[in-house]
Automatic annotation (TrEMBL):
<feature type="binding site">
    <location>
        <position position="229"/>
    </location>
    <ligand>
        <name>L-serine</name>
    </ligand>
</feature>
<feature type="site" description="Important for serine binding">
    <location>
        <position position="386"/>
    </location>
</feature>
<dbReference type="GO" id="GO:0005524">
    <property type="term" value="F:ATP binding"/>
</dbReference>
<dbReference type="InterPro" id="IPR002314">
    <property type="entry name" value="aa-tRNA-synt_IIb"/>
</dbReference>
<comment type="function">
    <text>Catalyzes the attachment of serine to tRNA(Ser). Is also able to aminoacylate tRNA(Sec) with serine, to form the misacylated tRNA L-seryl-tRNA(Sec), which will be further converted into selenocysteinyl-tRNA(Sec).</text>
</comment>
<feature type="region of interest" description="Disordered">
    <location>
        <begin position="41"/>
        <end position="119"/>
    </location>
</feature>
<dbReference type="GO" id="GO:0016260">
    <property type="term" value="P:selenocysteine biosynthetic process"/>
</dbReference>
<comment type="pathway">
    <text>Aminoacyl-tRNA biosynthesis; selenocysteinyl-tRNA(Sec) biosynthesis; L-seryl-tRNA(Sec) from L-serine and tRNA(Sec): step 1/1.</text>
</comment>
<feature type="binding site">
    <location>
        <begin position="229"/>
        <end position="231"/>
    </location>
    <ligand>
        <name>L-serine</name>
    </ligand>
</feature>
<dbReference type="InterPro" id="IPR015866">
    <property type="entry name" value="Ser-tRNA-synth_1_N"/>
</dbReference>
<feature type="compositionally biased region" description="Basic and acidic residues">
    <location>
        <begin position="60"/>
        <end position="99"/>
    </location>
</feature>
<keyword id="KW-0436">Ligase</keyword>
<feature type="domain" description="Aminoacyl-transfer RNA synthetases class-II family profile">
    <location>
        <begin position="137"/>
        <end position="411"/>
    </location>
</feature>
<keyword id="KW-0648">Protein biosynthesis</keyword>
<feature type="binding site">
    <location>
        <position position="384"/>
    </location>
    <ligand>
        <name>L-serine</name>
    </ligand>
</feature>
<feature type="binding site">
    <location>
        <position position="276"/>
    </location>
    <ligand>
        <name>ATP</name>
    </ligand>
</feature>
<dbReference type="Pfam" id="PF00587">
    <property type="entry name" value="tRNA-synt_2b"/>
</dbReference>
Amino acid sequence: MLDKRFVLENAELVQSNCERRGVKVDVPRFVELETKRRGLQQEIEDLSRQANEVSKSIGKAKDEAEREQRKEEGRSLRDEKDAKASEIERISAEADALHRRMPNLTHPESPVGGEDSSRELRKGEIEVRRMGFPVSDHVELAEQHDLIDFEAGARIAGNGFYFLKNEAAMLELALQQYAMQTLIREGFTPMTTPDLARGEILQGVGFIPRGPETQIYSVENFDLNLVATAEITLGGMMAGQVIDEEDLPIKLCGVSHCFRTEAGSAGRASRGLYRVHQFTKVEMFAFTTPDQSEDTLNMFLDLECEIFNGLGLPFRVLDIATGDLGGPAYRKFDLEAWMPGRGEHGEYGEVTSTSNCTDYQARRLDIRYKTKGEKGTNFVHTLNGTAVAISRALIAILENCQQADGSILVPEALRPWIGKERIGVPEEADEPVEA
């Protein structure tokens, strides 16, 4: 969340920022309520002080009449204080609801506008390949090579669930190893994370655990929710902690299952693995000082590019526009891989994103750092980034690496774990085919 004092002192800036991001929040109303709340809080403190003074004076009363008079005065002060406390409770509930809906501030270089205003920053090292033969999408390729069973997944858990089979199951494990080893070389601590988290952790990270707008699966009768990303668990693991500044930045890479309701998603663009209810992801997360966060965001983006360049996949990087930023993000970059089977002639589809959330999540989760020799603490900055989301990476691999003979080349970076160069053609029949 934003610092309340900052909002009070910069109400017009905050309101303008909300409007640029397409978020409806009545900032002037918050200022009115918060100012009134602070005034009432001061009045309560004054009443408490007066009540204490009266209470102390009772024993000094000259007679019973004066003693009763002072007791009555004390009761009157306490009743007035309780009435103001009730008013504060009512005001605070409305003010806090407005405060929590305010998105983070926005990087001055982020494009202003809706989704279509996002700006392309760069392309990957691999150019989009001209196929020269009829292109199949990943669903058709999976059926041809017995890689994914959508029908069995639907029988077990409903549409949007699936079984990975044969080389697709091996590709999932290979992608995890490839991403984790890349990040470990860069000083990340490897972790596996819980698949469940309490509602307060989701709210702190910026997700809505319950209600009509949620994309989260909740466990009935428990304050537990299936996580949509390891960002939730990796960010939440430091909730309420104070970190020594010399230990920053802390860089973590977590493997987790991810669960999303994907309510309202439909259409060919969501076909197959693109929008599913469960997938595996390797997530990057960092806790930094404010001075470190922008460089860390750029490092996360460079690592995402390194991973997808290493897979031999064409992609582009977008600087996400203000109207398409999630609430916690100060700046966000998306990496979109080329997917030849998507749309009529192929389209780019999002495969990773990385965000600098500055101190927005840290304020909600109360994560601070202390500097040696200085009094007090400051909020850390938090950053997250997808190293690889297996389901969407599989789409890009299957569709870009398909060959004219129907086989699929395995990216060279993954071959040590797959044990073969190609899916769909016996090893002894392999002939060199240009990727």
